[in-house]
Amino acid sequence: MSKKRFSGKNFVRTGTSSERSAVALEMVAISPACASVVEVGGLIVDHGWVRVFGDGREDPRLEEWNSESRIEVDDSGPAFFIANDVIGGIFLMSRRGSVLYLSPDSLEVEEATEDYASFVEFALEGDLDTFYEGYRFPGWKDAVGRLSTSDSYFSYPPLWAEGGETAFQRERSVVPALELRTFILKAISLADS
User: Fold this and answer.
1) CA nearest to 186, candidates 50, 24, 47, 69
2) b/e map 151-168, b = 16+ CB within 10 Å
C-alpha cells in the first residue's frame, strides 16, 4: 500500500513488474499508447486526485482492478478499469479503445475521450478543476496528498443519492477504493434490476 505525501501536481510511478500482466497485454493490443503508462507503473495526477493504473507493484494496479468485476459498456465485451479518482469515479477503456467515465454522482457511464492517448493528455493537461467542479473542497490538495493511492472518499448519502453532493462537501470518510468500486457496481446492478 502506498502511503505517500505528494508535494507536486503529477507523478510518474516506477517499479513495474518484470512481466506484463495479461490485462496490460490486452490493453496494449487495443491501444499501443497504453504501453507508455503501463511501463512506468502508472501516473498519480492532480495531487493524487486521479490515479492512472499501471502494471507495477504499488496500488492501484491494473491487474488488481481488472481481476474481478468488469462492466460491459458496449457490445465489444467487458471494459478495462484504467483509472480512478478520489470521489469514486472510474475511468474505463472499451475494447474499441474509447475512454469512458463512470460518474459517481449519476452512476452513468459517459464518454470521456476518444482514446487512451487523449485520456492521458486530458489527465495531465486538461481542465480537471472544471471536470470536478462542485467536488473540490477547501484544503483538498493537502487532504488528497495525504490519502493513500488505494483509498477514496465516501460520504453518506452517496453522491448519486439526494443530498449526496452536499454531504460530500460537509464530511467525507476514507474507504478502500476497490471496496467503493464494488459498492458502486452493486448500486448500478440494483438500479438496473
Assistant:
1) 69
2) bbbbbeebbbeeebbebb
CATH of the domain at 25: 3.40.1580
pTM of the model: 0.86
- Return d(Cα 40, Cα 30) in angstroms, integer: 18
What digits encode the pLDDT tens for the residues 124-174?
Answer: 999 999 999 999 999 999 999 899 999 999 999 999 999 999 999 889 999
- Residue 29 in grid coordinates: 493490443
Residue 58 per-residue DSSP state: S
Q: How many domains does the chain have?
A: 1
Instruction: State the residue for C-alpha cell 459498492.
Output: 183
CA-based radius of gyration for the chain: 16
